[in-house]
Each structure stands twice: as C-alpha cells, then as structure tokens.
Amino acid sequence: MTKRTIFLSCLLAILFALINLFWLFLVLFILVLIFKKILALISKSFFKKGFVLFSLLFALIIIRLFIFDIFKIPSSSMEDTLFPKDIIIVNKLKYGPKLPRSPFDIPILNIAFYFNKKAKEKIKKNWWAYKRLSGYSNVKNGDIIVYENFRKNFFFVKRCVAIPGDTLYIKNGSVYINNTYHEFNNNIKKSYQFKIKNVDKFHRDIDALEITDCINIETDSLQYSTINLSIKKAKEMNQLSSIDSFGYTIKAFNENDKFFYRKNKEQWTIDNLGPIITPKKGMQIILNDKNFAIYHKALRKYEKVKIKRVNGTYFINDVIKDLYTFKQNYYFMMGDNRDETIDSRFFGFLPEKNIVGYVQGVFLSNYQDTFQWGRLFKSIY
Questions:
Q1: E strands along the chain, which residues?
Q2: Which of 72, 209, 317, 360 is deepest in the core (most CB within 10 A)?
Q3: What's the gap between Cα 363 and its chain centre?
Q4: Could you tell me which of 340, 332, 294, 303 has the C-alpha nearest to residue 147?
C-alpha cells in the first residue's frame, strides 16, 4: 500500500467519522482489500470475470441492506405528496440501517431460504436481536419515512409529525407540536365543504384550476358539496366567486372509531386529539387511568411489559408501580391524505426499531396507469 493510498484512506476515515458513518468506511475498506487480494490470486480470465460478477452481485446486496433501497407506494394515504404505484428511493444511511433480523431480510440471498420448508415456517419471526448502525442524522418533524408495521415485512409510508418528547395536539384538523402550528407542506389533503352559487361557472372555475379530485355535488344548491383537496388547491378554490361557505370539514365524535386511545372518554376524533406526549427513552409517566389509556399499546406491545389495573392500583409484571420509565423512542406518524389514511391516530406510537429509512424521492411513477415523466427522480419534502 503506497503512502498516497494510506493518506487518502486516513482522510476518508476521518470524513466518515465526522458524519457518524465510520462503520461504513470500515466495511468498504475491508471489502475492497478482500476483493483486490482474491482477484490477484485468480490467474484464469474466465474465473476472474466470474468473481467480478459475483462481487457486483454482493455489492448490490450491501447497497440494498445498508445504503439505499426501493419500495412501491401501496395506497393513497400520502396523496398529493406520493401517489399509488410510485416507486420511491429510501435512504437507509440517514437514520442508520437496521441489521437483518432473519435471512429473509437479506435481498437475493433470501431466495434460497424460501425453498427450505423449516426456514419458511419461521418467515414471520425474528431470528436475531434488533440492532441499528449509526446514521448521519436523526428523524426530524416532517420527515417522510418508510416503516415496518406490526407484521414483519409489511411496509408503509407516512410523515413523522412528532418525534420523541414532543407534545402533540390536533385542533380542528390543524397539527400543533410543542404549541407551534405545523402545516408541513401544501400537499396535505383534507376534506372541505362548500355551497355552489353558480353551477356552470363553478365547473369552468375548477377546470381552470385543474382540479381533478372527486367532488360530491348536491343537486340542491342549499346543501353543502364536499371535496378532498390539498392545502394549495383549497386556498385557490376558496377564492372562487362561484362558491361560498368554503371550509374544512370537522369530523364528529364517533364512539365506534377505533383509536389508539383505549377508552375515548375525551371524545377524541381524527381532527381533535390530545395533547399527548410522544414517548422518549428515559421519559417517566405516572401510572393513572389517562396515561394507561394513551400508552397501553406501547407498553404491552413494544416495551414488553405485563401491565394491569386492579381497584385503581397498577401492576407491572405483577409488581405494584406508580411510575413507568420508557425504554425506547417513539414517533407519531400521519398520512398527508389526512381523512383517507390509517396512521398513528389509529395504530398508536411507532417504535424506533420499526423505522426502515428516509424517503429521498420518487424513482419513477405510473400514477393512474400512465408514466409520469414529471415525477421521474422527483425529490419530495
């Protein structure tokens, strides 16, 4: 190894360490050394070509495991930011990649395990303990994230609205984090209602605004019509002279709504909820009826504690407790299509270990079965 190579290696090591990715430098450095050593030992051209092809395949596995991967958007829950059938690029380095928890988590190599009957019986189980390597950034409010839901290898995409320790409050559909209103972006969709004053002019107006969303138009002009619009389009539509009484539709309380909140004594809805604190590692809560109603799922499912209430007294693992200290960080996720999504308002707090990576942008889009050239390699926020 020449002095120049040593100097460049040391410089790269320092740069990677500064961005908290020294582990990546070590992996790449060791793999390059092994590749060059083995290649030097192979004399025949045929075997050299075979080894190079194998190395490229192995490099693809490393990239998908630790650096970038691609996922397909399954639903409309993130419209108008992401659309069904969008293929997105997921940055795993940003928050740090998770190590595989079973052979089925390893791209390409997992194919062999699908043909093993005994292995396939454990396809939904974790074989190894959770471990995440360091990343160069932490999750921030507004980040769009791919995460694994309650079922293994079942992935979703949502926007993180609250990070560990944040106080979240939703009032009339508006999201407040630590008492500050957050709009996040103009693509957030909500359901609006309005009255049409002039039907013909109204149709001309929405054509001019290029509004293609489905509109529930009442034949009686005295009744409200409804439409699901992005904030940007709603601001434009609110200026139309062909309508009046334009406003956001506030969802009423329904005792049949299956919120994460155990007993909805507060009469929370998807538009009015909280305030609640997103659990943070080391955060301590008093064990009372309200906190139990909010955090029971996180305690049982992710903190793995056996909690019960007997005559107003709380037991954790059969020991009387007044307080509980969280062992993990959690996040509160919401879809951009606020009225047409199942998110943390329903399934509760998302544990850090379920996060896969940060959505860097759209790789390609085939929305409404038409290739969208304008969304090719489109960045999102």
A1: 68-72, 87-91, 144-148, 155-162, 167-171, 174-177, 180-182, 189-196, 215-216, 225-230, 243-248, 273-277, 284-286, 307-310, 313-316, 319-320, 323-325, 330-334, 350-351, 355-364
A2: 360
A3: 17
A4: 332
Which is more confident, 118 or 283? 283
Position 263 in a domain: no
Mean pLDDT for 82-99 is 95
Q: Which of 261, 262, 283 is nearest to 272 (CA)?
A: 261
Residue 107: CB atoms within 10 A of its CB come to: 15
Whole-number mean pLDDT of the chain?
89
pTM here is 0.90
Cβ–Cβ under 8 Å, residues 149 and 121:
no
Q: What is the pLDDT of residues 296-328, one digit of tens each?
A: 999 999 999 999 888 889 999 989 999 999 999
From 345, 335, 348, 352, select the one nearest 73 (Cα to Cα). 335
Q: Looking at the domain assignment, is residue 12 inside a domain? A: yes
Long-range Cβ contacts of 117-126 (<8 Å, 24+ apart): 123/152, 124/151, 124/152, 124/153, 125/152, 126/101, 126/102, 126/152
* Domain carrying residue 29: 3-61
Tell me how many domains the chain contains: 2
Please tell me the distance from the alpha carbon of residue 146 to that of residue 73, in angstroms, as a whole number: 10
* Residue 36 counted as domain residue: yes
